[in-house]
Amino acid sequence: MSSPARAATRATGDAVTRVENWFVARKHALYGLSGSRILVGTAVLGILVTNFGMRHIQWGPASGWIDAYRTDTGSGPLHALFGTSSTVVFTLAYLVVMALAVAVVLGWRTRLTTALLVLGIVSVVERNALIGDQGDNIARIGLLLMVFMNTAEHWSLDARRRRRHAGLRLSPVRRILRGLPVAPRWLTNPLHNAALMALALQLFILYTASALYKVQGERWQDGTALYWPLQLPEYSVFPALNELLTHNAVLVTLATYFAVYIQLSFAVGLLHPVTRRIALLGVVAMHVGIAVLMGLPWFSLAMIAFDGIFVSTRTYEALDRWARATAGPPLRRLRARVPRRLRPA
What we know:
Layout: H1 3-24, H2 30-50, H3 55-58, H4 67-73, H5 87-106, H6 110-125, H7 134-146, H8 157-164, H9 172-177, H10 185-215, H11 218-221, H12 239-246, H13 249-264, H14 266-269, H15 273-294, H16 297-307, H17 313-337
Helix pairs in contact: 2-5, 2-7, 2-16, 5-6, 6-7, 7-10, 7-16, 10-13, 13-15, 15-16
């Protein structure tokens, strides 16, 4: 074999080894996924809380007006989980789903509660697909993938429990009962990283497809696409702010083109540290604008939650140190005022 061929073979082997090590050696994006867990759990809780007053007519016993649509579209068996005629039973089930969202935010028995939350939120939302939005879809997809990942390594009750039991030799049954890891790392590491890659791919497809669909439209090409939805009362959470933007043709055009280009270049922009920061700040700014100007906060929060997996671990560690240094002294002073018998062990 010639020298160039041997060099090419060796380079290929090294690349394969690096890919294998990346998948098997350790779990990645643990800080980012911990943040994603908190934010997407908050988004789901926000959806449920803000619709609590209308729960019966939208999804509950008073939602008979949508029965014909459910039958025609074949929405599947999950919606039947909340198909009760009792308002009390429906409300209790609704509150259980809200409690599951709180458990996910706190990181309590995270894998189990995440799986149950996926089942619960899908069962609720599928009872009336007409009032859902893309925030529901991305939240469901992300939560389903998070079942296969470790999303409670940081900022969670599970992490505190693992620290308390570190070094103890417990049987598998006791580890399961106490919510501790049981499966070996040679199995969980590849599963975690594969689900992480699937989530990243989902975001790439979402942003790229969204941008490609936009550029086909005449309104997006001439820079006026954002003007029209911002004129609708349904999107005018702050009418004065919407009016301030729509009355400036330059701002409307810049915002329209910005939305297209930041989505189109997002996946490629992640390849370099400098462009990654620009891409992440750009999509966060876009989603903040959607939340404020179009009244879609939970969609925006869910998207920002999953965009957080692309933030580097060093950035999260720096933010964590800053937060502990800032909030630590006040929390210690507050804890000192609590009677000793009421303090947690």
